[in-house]
């Protein structure tokens, strides 16, 4: 296909997408009042360029060489601050640039308009990035591919369609509330234990580590329909093995992908990566098998199989047993530190901003007087709580840069034409921190998300996509929100949260996800 034909096709696609395609309806945040959705597309400019034959090619893109990128990463110290490199490079090269490092050849886009253009041409089966090392592990062990992130195409779509009903339909997700509330109860008991044991009888050290256990327990209680005991004083050995394997696998995943295959026999990373996957898969499979045995016992005893997520997956016959093993494992991988880091940052800011914390406390107390445990219906009357979570995700988008690997079509973005199999990097951190989109972008200001904020706020809908967008967006969004809303509301019902005296400012660092660069220690003072 010639480049101008490809451009015309891509633009037709864009124009259709502009009329809110079904695939994207559920994805991005709805535009704020008064926002013109057509602003998302640079259709006229690109179409003019196409007609005039002015589209440029990927080779015309500005950007650093591999050596320059290595210089920025390792000599200028951005290796664990790649979120900040988005802004540095945007300033140097403009809003769209090409960068190469190791096996990666990326086209970076750093304005909401350009992000929108990529997404609107992502095709039927969007893919984030190729993860050859995950696929290789699956092939090594003869396992099925999962929904995230190791599969793509119609296979991914089939698996994802099996998961969506129980994960994304609000009516279905509400059913998980009692289980999540139990886990939040355990979190409160854990906070009470830790603070009462501390020297000043108030401080919980490394809050993110505790919330990690909460995230692990919360998501496992839904996925495996069993409690693992992550928040207990003595964590059961198998649970500990599970937690260690998840952490080890995710950490090694970043390293393994950078080294060539021939180095696997020489360097220790690949064999450790395989061992961590084996451990993690093994525990997940035995938890699922245990649940299957329970269900079989119920059924053979003449009782109906009662359960929620896992029971549904196992009984719906939409996925094979092998596919259930891997989908549940991969859901777990997506669902732990995303939620726990967001909660950690929210508490960090609430502790430093008394006014915001008191406003949140007032809201929760007025909806649930006498420290009544909130139920899902209450959440719709807590706009400030939701604003706190949104603002946290804006300042610290857990996934600071997402990907789209467009393999099906040639695409046009800005005034460039790109061949099939182009890997785009969507610079969400840069768009969330863009002063043109969010005035006072570096400030924690939950009010900006409130409808009564006076309409001074008009950001482009693609500038804030914390859960991604379109059919490939986060499948755990509703569950994650429920966990965070319940945990935050109940923590502020019971405690006033304060920073330790003289506590340093905590910056984020990139470890695939955006995480605190140092431990966050907070004081939890019981409310009268
Ligand atoms: C604050 C919490 C969370 C955030 C900010 C978050 C963010 C994201 C983002 C940005 C993506 C990529 C979407 C895209 O490419 O458009 C994603 C994908 C995904 N997330 Fe989440 N997530 C969170 C919690 C969860 C939870 C609790 C689960 C598990 C139930 C989960 C499971 C997944 C899965 C399986 C995918 C891949 C979906 C696919 O490829 O089809 N996430 N998430």
TrEMBL record:
<keyword id="KW-0503">Monooxygenase</keyword>
<dbReference type="GO" id="GO:0071375">
    <property type="term" value="P:cellular response to peptide hormone stimulus"/>
</dbReference>
<dbReference type="GO" id="GO:0008203">
    <property type="term" value="P:cholesterol metabolic process"/>
</dbReference>
<dbReference type="GO" id="GO:0005743">
    <property type="term" value="C:mitochondrial inner membrane"/>
</dbReference>
<dbReference type="InterPro" id="IPR001128">
    <property type="entry name" value="Cyt_P450"/>
</dbReference>
<dbReference type="GO" id="GO:0004497">
    <property type="term" value="F:monooxygenase activity"/>
</dbReference>
<dbReference type="InterPro" id="IPR017972">
    <property type="entry name" value="Cyt_P450_CS"/>
</dbReference>
<dbReference type="InterPro" id="IPR002401">
    <property type="entry name" value="Cyt_P450_E_grp-I"/>
</dbReference>
<keyword id="KW-0349">Heme</keyword>
<keyword id="KW-0408">Iron</keyword>
<dbReference type="GO" id="GO:0020037">
    <property type="term" value="F:heme binding"/>
</dbReference>
<feature type="binding site" description="axial binding residue">
    <location>
        <position position="474"/>
    </location>
    <ligand>
        <name>heme</name>
    </ligand>
</feature>
<dbReference type="GO" id="GO:0006700">
    <property type="term" value="P:C21-steroid hormone biosynthetic process"/>
</dbReference>
<protein>
    <submittedName>
        <fullName>Cytochrome P450 family 27 subfamily A member 2</fullName>
    </submittedName>
</protein>
<dbReference type="GO" id="GO:0042359">
    <property type="term" value="P:vitamin D metabolic process"/>
</dbReference>
<dbReference type="GO" id="GO:0006704">
    <property type="term" value="P:glucocorticoid biosynthetic process"/>
</dbReference>
<dbReference type="Pfam" id="PF00067">
    <property type="entry name" value="p450"/>
</dbReference>
<keyword id="KW-0560">Oxidoreductase</keyword>
<dbReference type="GO" id="GO:0034650">
    <property type="term" value="P:cortisol metabolic process"/>
</dbReference>
<dbReference type="GO" id="GO:0016705">
    <property type="term" value="F:oxidoreductase activity, acting on paired donors, with incorporation or reduction of molecular oxygen"/>
</dbReference>
<dbReference type="GO" id="GO:0005506">
    <property type="term" value="F:iron ion binding"/>
</dbReference>
<comment type="similarity">
    <text>Belongs to the cytochrome P450 family.</text>
</comment>
<dbReference type="InterPro" id="IPR050479">
    <property type="entry name" value="CYP11_CYP27_families"/>
</dbReference>
<keyword id="KW-0479">Metal-binding</keyword>
<dbReference type="InterPro" id="IPR036396">
    <property type="entry name" value="Cyt_P450_sf"/>
</dbReference>
